[in-house]
Amino acid sequence: MRQQIAAANWKMNLTLEQGEKLLDEILGKMGNLAANRQAVFAVPFPYLAMARQKTGVRAQVSVAAQNCSNKKSGAYTGEVSVDMLNSLQVSYVVLGHSERREYFQESNQLLAEKLDICLAGNLKPIFCCGESLLIREANTQNEFVGRQLEESLFHLTAEQLQQVVIAYEPIWAIGTGKTASSEQAQEMHAFIRARLAQQYGAGLANEISILYGGSVKASNAAELFGQPDVDGGLVGGASLIADEFTAIIKALR
Predict the structure, then answer these.
(1) pLDDT for 77-126, tens place per residue?
(2) Is 195 left (phi over 0), alpha (psi -120 to 50) or beta?
(3) Phi, psi at 127, each rounded to 5°
(4) Backbone region of residue 231 per phi and psi (left: phi > 0; alpha: psi in -120 to 50; beta: other values)
(5) Fewer Cβ atoms within 10 A, N terminus or C terminus of the chain?
(6) What is the DSSP letter of 63?
(7) Phi, psi of 236 (to 5 degrees)
(8) What does the pLDDT read at residue 173?
């Protein structure tokens, strides 16, 4: 069975003290996870060491960075390298989040470079893709997301792709007042898996975890995660509330 993942994206929120308290509460409530379930905490860079210390060697719990540089090292003030993340024993890196694409103009080509350097450093990318409201209303979402996959992922070998987690974000359903149904989530996840199968074969495509990143919360997690091609969630606001995120973890298949 594919890994079922609840990934918390704290974004630029919480003080160190608040982050410590939140992690303690979640780790205290979530219990031991089955072998096919994972909880991942994508915390701000200054909190990575704290998160690693608190999660320790706990089975099925990992820490992620929210971004990394496409450069190995050098005069890049403010950037964080793969080697730095490895020195903290971070497991995952979120790449291509819609906010990075929109606010920092990260291109598909740049993300391909980031994927390469992460995989070379044995870090597991959580690669985000998804379409805006304009694209959804034009009914060209499959072409758009397909191009994101092609231009950022499809240069990878099958062995490399096995290390990648994909997260689909329906940007049009985040903060717009519109709601993506579980059926719409399943439809796009099935398209992504079919596109992977075309490129790499059905066997490998069926091994890749595809997370849903569209306002996942405790009240809709079970329905979303019950869809056959939805393998968990990349969770924003609800991951900042201990009871909410704990319930989301427990909703994993």
Answers:
(1) 999 999 999 999 999 999 999 999 999 999 999 999 999 999 999 999 99
(2) alpha
(3) -90, 120
(4) alpha
(5) N
(6) E
(7) -95, -100
(8) 82
Domain ranges across the chain: 4-250
> Cα(99)–Cα(119) distance, rounded to whole angstroms?
22
Q: CB-based contacts of 15: which residues, under 8 Å, 6+ apart?
A: none
Could you tell me which residues come within 8 angstroms of residue 28 by beta carbon, excluding any fewer than 6 positions away?
none
Q: Which two tokens stand for residue 174?
A: 């985040």
Question: Distance between the two ends of the chain, CA-based, in angstroms?
Answer: 10
Q: Report d(CA 152, CA 50) in Å as an integer.
A: 31
Select the CATH number that applies to the domain covering 4-250 from these four: 3.30.70.20, 3.40.50.300, 3.20.20.70, 3.40.50.1010: 3.20.20.70
- The C-alpha atoms of residue 204 and residue 187 are separated, in whole angstroms, by 19
Token readout for 105 is 């103009």
Does the global pTM surpass 0.90? yes
Q: How far is CA 17 from CA 10, 44, 51, 57, 216, in A?
A: 14, 13, 12, 22, 25
**Residue 38: pLDDT above 90?**
yes
For residue 93, the 8-state DSSP code is: E
Active site amino acids: 97, 169
The identity of residue 210, as a single letter, is: I
Per-residue model confidence as pLDDT tens digits over 168-215: 999 988 766 666 899 999 999 999 999 999 999 999 999 999 999 988
